[in-house]
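Incident log, support desk, overnight shift.

02:14 A customer reports that sequence design results differ from what the structure should imply. Their input is reproduced verbatim below. On-call engineer (initials T.W.) acknowledged and began investigating.
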């Protein structure tokens, strides 16, 4: 399992790459780091590439992980590249959390449309 953060080729965005099964401790550590970076205006959006992620069968972990994430990152746009094995019922749970938080999160299966969406967020912010 790994959670890697790097600067995106899209100005103002960071990219998070998730590989394997992300544990709660690693997620909390990452969110703490992102919260500090967000406070310094180091970025204003995220591109999360979870195509190689693996998730436990229970949906409660996904709900908790998204709630933790949106507690800190609710104010920014997030493009989420879904894992290949992303089940419809898991997506329903996550979309419900996103709706509750009124977050700006878009789901994608391919990188090109995700990057285009991120660029649109940049343009809207600049306007």
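02:41 Re-run completed on a clean worker. Output:
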């Amino acid at each position: 399992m790994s959670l890697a953060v790097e600067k995106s080729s899209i100005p103002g965005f960071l990219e998070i790459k998730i590989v394997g099964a992300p544990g709660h401790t690693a997620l909390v550590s990452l969110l703490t780091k992102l919260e500090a970076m967000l406070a310094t205006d180091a970025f204003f959006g995220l591109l999360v590439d979870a195509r190689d992620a693996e998730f436990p069968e229970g949906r409660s972990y996904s709900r908790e992980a998204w709630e933790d994430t949106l507690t800190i990152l609710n104010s920014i746009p997030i493009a989420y590249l879904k894992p290949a094995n992303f089940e419809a019922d898991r997506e329903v749970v996550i979309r419900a959390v996103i709706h509750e938080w009124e977050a700006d999160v878009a789901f994608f299966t391919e990188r090109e449309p995700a990057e285009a969406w991120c660029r649109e967020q940049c343009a809207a912010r600049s306007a």
